[in-house]
Every structure is written in C-alpha cells, then in structure tokens.
What we know:
By secondary structure, the chain is of the alpha/beta class. 33% of the residues lie in helices and 22% in strands.
Amino acid sequence: MKNKQTIGILQFGCAKNLIDTELMLGMLTKCGYKYSLDPYDKNIKTVIVSTCSFIHDAEKESVSAIMDLVKMGKKIILTGCLVQKYKEELPKLLPEVKHFLGVCEYDKIIEAIENKTYKNVSDNPAYCYREDIKREQITVGASSYIKIAEGCYYNCGYCIIPKLRGSYKSRTIENIVSEAKELANKGVSEIILIAQDTTSYGLDIYKKPMLSKLLEELNKIENINWIRLMYAYPTNFDEKLMRTINKLDKVVKYIDIPLQHSNIEVLKRMKRPAIDYRKFIEKIRKEIPNVAIRTTFIVGYPAETDEEFEDLYNFVKDMKFDKVGIFTYSREKNTYAYSLKPQVKADIKKKRKSKLMKLQKEISQNINKQCTGKKIQCIIEEIRSDGLITARSYKDAPEVDGLVYIKTNEYLTPGDIVDVKITKTTSYDLYGVI
C-alpha cells in the first residue's frame, strides 16, 4: 500500500478556529495521513492554511503567508473565515490556489486533498460540530479549549461572524462532558469553555440557558482541576449563573465578558445591549467575591464623539478591571457599521487607544502590586531549561493575560495547581516562590 503524504498545517485565528483545525487533523489521522506543523519544510507538498478574517490585520497576515507558500510551489488548501467571507473573490485573486473549503465544510478536507481542484463553500453557512470526529490536538498541555457552541444569535454592528458561521448551535451537555473526560484522561488539568457567546449556551436545543447546568456537570469530572469561562455575552449573564460560578469549586473566579463600550448611545449604534454596565459589573462582583474580570473595548466606532470616548475612559478608570483588551474599530464590508457616518479618522482612533491602554497599564500595575506578599493559586505551564517555572494564576487565561514566574526546588509538572507567594510584580506579570 502506498504511503500517504504528510500534510503541512498553518493555523491562524482564535481558539474556536484552532478546534476546527484539530477536527480536520483528526480526519487526516483517521484516514492514514501524517501532518507537520512546519508548513515551510521543503519535503511538504500540500499545506492546509486555516485562515482568520476577524479584523483587517488578521486578513493581511493570512494572505501574506499564503503568498509565501505559493512562491514555494506548495499545493494549498484554504479553509476558514477568510474563504467564507471572500468566496467569490479569492479564486480570482489567487489563481494559483485550487482548493477552497468554507467554515462549515471542514469535514470535506480528505476530498480536497485527494482532488486536483476542489471548492466547497456554502452560500448559507450553518456550522455543525462533528461529534463523530476525535480532535487531533496540537496544543495539548496543562489546558485545553472546548467549543460548547458555534455561530451567533446576535448581529453586532461591527461583526461579520454571524454571516460567516451561521446562527447559534449548541452541543449537547453529554457530548461536552464526554470530551472533557477524554481530555482529563490525557492529563489536561484546565478546560476552557469557548463559543461566540457562551452565555447563550443551550437556548437552541434546551429552549433555555443551560450554562449553569453544564458547569455543574463539568465540575463533577475527576482530574479536572480548573474550569474557565470565556466569551460571556451580557444578555444571559443572570444571577443564577453568577451564583453557580461562585459555588462551584473548580470553576475559577474569572469572567471574560466583552463589553465593547460603556456609552449607551454608542452601544445602541453597535447594536449591543444598551444597559448600565456599572451596575452590571457591581452585581457580578457582589455575587462572585474576588472575581477577576477581563473585558474588551472598541475605540473609534463610527460617530464616536470625544464626549462618548471620555465616558468610556472614565468607566474604565472607575471600574478598575483586572484585564482589558483594546481594539480600534476595523471597518468591515457587509456589516451595519460599514456605512455609518462619520467614520472616525485613523489618527484619532490610534490616540484614543493609546490613552486607554496607558490608563489600563496603570490600573493593572496597581492591582498586581496588591498581590505582593499574598498567596495565589496558580497552574503550572512549563518547566524551563534554566530552572524557572512559568505558570498562570486563576486570574490569567492562556495567551491573552499575564504569567507567573516561579522559583522553587520542588518537583512540579505541567498541570499541577500550587499556591505561590508573590514576591515581585510588573504591569502584567507576577514573580513568586513556593
């Protein structure tokens, strides 16, 4: 029997996109293919490029990598959001590329590899998680993501994702728990729940929000030590969910809840929940003592005035969030905000972002200083060759937040949960001993 070729993998985008790639790798492995995470290896003839189209910079990064691979003479299979967004334009712009898969056609990857040309991109994407495929994880370690749903019910003014991924589709509690148990058996200590919107989990299949119930079931799994919740949308973040997070011992007291702005008029233009976020955040902090809150904001949204930006600035100053991500508005075709006027000038957006980032850096520095001398629960990530250990506190999610650097003579392994006494801090990272 002829040996099947090794397929190169080039991954862009968010953790949700990563899981799609890992599902494709599961199909490759099942069909006898090997894969390499070095797509530029001269021995690799075929490369799967999983693209991102969240913002313009992400698109440029994907296209630049594609052109590099084209110059190397690789057979390229394009998948992901960029393909879905530009399903008509890409084949014309990249005639060297003959293989295209939309976001809902990842399960056709074998056909794409085995045909000379292949295009399968739905006009009406409706994502469906293939429960019969086992993910071939390329990021196995102390932590692992679990996608609990795909698609989105909302149509935020700046966002293209619902048009690329379709309406909201939850996985069943049974399937999610089963995957979490498999991860625990592989040695994963922390599971991180992701979706376009985790708080809407269950509305489609159970007819009511079921995130609290899902957390309760996951909390029972032996050998899972931490459960982290990301991408929580404000609408269904009710008192029941807050109290569930507070009472479950394995659910870390960390909330990632993208608010995007504070000003009511801007939120209306964004087609976001126009609610008093001050009261909302105060409620979360009351129901979940010592909670760490991460959020994101967009500056320079169309028609954002100086006064509306100052409202956001003062909101961040008063709320003192543990972690904040700040984006300048990225104009996307086929979104409500694309035609809004006036569009904010690039230099103004840049200045507003810089001002807000400077403020948050000071806030983060002060919050971290308060940790000095205290013991904080951390998960071990890596034992470095120089003896220094990298870890994350319960307040830190992988890739987006800070790290804890530890000195110890104790024998530790990735995934261990330990108490670390903090001895030194910076704006974003902590240093400590066991």
